[in-house]
Amino acid sequence: MNLLAAPAEIAAGAGRAGAGVAGSDPTLASFGHDRWWLIIIKVVFIFVFLLVMTLFAIWAERRVIGRMQNRLGPNRAGPFGLLQSVADGIKLGLKEDIVPRGVDRAIFVLAPVIAVTPAFISFAIIPVGPIVSIFGVLTPLQLTDLPVAVLLVLAMSSIGVYGIVLAGWASGSPYPLLGGLRSSAQVISYEIAMGLSFVAVFLYAGSLSTSQIVAAQAHGSPFHIGGLTLYIPSWYAVLLLPSFLIYLVTMVGETNRLPFDLPEGEGEIVGGFHTEYSSLKFALFYLAEYINMTTVAALAATLFLGGWRAPWPITIWSGANSGWWPVLWFLAKVLILLFCFVWLRGTLPRVRYDQLMRLGWKFLIPGSLAWIILIATVRSVRRGSGGPVPYVIAGFVLAVLFAIWWAWDAATVRRRSEEADEQAAEEAAIEADPMAAGFPVPPADLPHYRGIGVPPSPGPGVPGSRGGPAGQGRGSATQTASAAANGAAKEVTGA
Length: 495
Fold this sequence. Notes:
Elements lengths: L6 H13 L16 H33 L15 H11 L10 H18 L8 E4 L2 E4 L8 H22 L3 H32 L4 H7 L5 E4 L2 E4 L4 H4 L1 H14 L24 H26 L20 H23 L5 H32 L4 H44 L44 H10 L9
Helix pairs in contact: 2-10, 2-11, 3-10, 4-5, 4-10, 5-6, 6-9, 6-12, 9-10, 9-12, 10-11, 12-13
């Protein structure tokens, strides 16, 4: 290297050396060499991309659900109603910003910012494509990467919930407070299951770096059957299907979307944590929800669907994973996952809060732990020896887990059957003896039910009489004679 070269040229050369070759996979050494103007370009791109995706997701959600419900959806503002989201954003900005009395004003204003800022930061470690040339400088299509990049997403989601909790507390109203408490419990529960679903990916990829996880899904391991060389599927959505399914459930719970939108509930807590918010503050909460949807969808594509790599059979084309084409494959995967959010909202009703917590703590977390034990066992045995031994051990572990699940399910069914028998016995005892339940139940054959002992009403013409002509009032002579014949001088009710 020429020692007399300009510092800018030396920095550019270091950047090219660190980035690698155009079209190649980035590594951790590829980051930290970008020029300042290139970093600004990436930051602006992420900001604009997330805003545009939010506007598009809102429009697409209204259009898709409209088709599901035999409606048109937005169709007036712009072609196909594409500008409706823009019009709604302008409307929110022009609405009156109302701050109720008695709120903690500083926290009330700060809460929406805390909710939306981590949503932007989380997308910084998402790889969108390989190393490309931007204005003659080689750089990966990713803002940055870390040895523990995936943990950054979990940390940002934990910080984001503070915005919701503080918004509910600072509003000074019981309904927002309940919504904030619900959200904190929900995010804590489902964040545990989400983190556990990542562990199997870390074990297979051997790294927590998002770029390395994408590179680990590039090629499947070869195996031979009947003289043919086949390859094991490389996407972790296939290899680690239980982890992928658990993550799909937890990403809906993390974003507070239907059927898990319990922090909001117009039937019991109105709008939940943002009941007292309006104008741009409400728009920030709205923005945070849809940006979080895009971020968790992009993370699912990165960890389980091969990231920016093209799916088969597009991979037959040699140039599918080079240049700017990978951006298209990545965007297609994100849009498919966003459609799943809309599909769930238009299909499933909101669950009860106890059902939400039971699903997280009794099914997702234990299932994730069992799956991690199985994967760790297989990986450790495969490192020690090859052959069919790991799969035999895996089958044994699965059999043990199935036996435990079967015993637990049988015990649950037996307990419910015993409870049903006890309830039926109690109901039969109450029918046989009304006093069996421990509280008085008046018998239905008391004398006053038949009119015995009830003093007669005064006849027609007498003050207090409600009767009409003679013989038609309640206090007729016939009734008086009947009561006298029965010898009832006073009412006997027994109750």
